[in-house]
């Protein structure tokens, strides 16, 4: 093993151990943890806003937001009257489990039913890092083009759920929904695909129902 590969293996092992500790902690509190991954501009924060509004009053929710700079996304969540904590990576293209551990301690959210982690906008780097989540969700917006699953196979094969976002733009862009769904099913035959639009509400009920079902399953 080359020195570079050895260092990477050590980093991933340290992350695995930290993630395992987080997973145990969230299992004890029955907190469902959802890791949202996408390219920049795919609509993670907009989706979160629409999701949190639908879950309000039924679930205790909180959001950890990862970005290279600024607290703009966390501020958008806080304007809904909901807790959000910003993690600034200072240039790193992903979040790791130790950052989640530190942020969770500082955020002071208290008991939560669902914790959303909005990862740094990137389809490559976040894929390899376990954050102690229950499952990964990959977002692909119609504006990104319909060739992305096969270009970025790792995340589409590992994410249990794929959300096709900005479906309201379908009449305005060239995007073969059926072809994208076929690519994703080729990479992950057991995964779930939900076309959604935070603007029109398309697919949002199914997405929120999926979250509720996963939360109920975690409670045993």
Read across the widest sheet, the strand sequence of neighbours is 3-2-4-1-5-6-7
Residue share in β-strands: 15-25%
CATH topology grouping: Rossmann fold
Domain unit count: 1
Number of strands: 7
| Overall geometric form | globular
What can you see in these coordinates?
With about 220 residues, the protein is an alpha/beta fold. The chain has one domain (about 5-220): P-loop containing nucleotide triphosphate hydrolases (Rossmann fold), CATH 3.40.50.300. Helices cover about 40% and strands about 20% of the residues. The chain contains eight helices and seven strands, in the order H-E-H-E-H-E-H-E-E-H-H-E-H-E-H. Strands 3-2-4-1-5-6-7 form a seven-stranded parallel sheet, sandwiched between helices. Strand 6, helix 7 (about 175-185) and strand 7 form a beta-alpha-beta unit. The chain is globular and about 45 Å long. The mean pLDDT is about 95.
List keywords for this structure.
Rossmann fold; 7-stranded parallel β-sheet; 8 helices; about 220 residues; about 20% strand; globular; alpha/beta; 7 strands
SSE topology:
Blueprint: H1 3-28, E1 32-38, H2 44-55, E2 61-67, H3 72-78, E3 84-88, H4 97-107, E4 114-118, E5 135-141, H5 148-151, H6 153-158, E6 161-165, H7 177-187, E7 192-195, H8 204-218
Parallel strand pairs: 1-4, 1-5, 2-3, 2-4, 5-6, 6-7
Helix pairs in contact: 1-4, 2-8
Give a brief description.
This protein is an alpha/beta fold and 220 residues long. It has helices at 3-28, 44-55, 72-78, 97-107, 148-151, 153-158, 177-187, 204-218, and strands spanning 32-38, 61-67, 84-88, 114-118, 135-141, 161-165, 192-195.
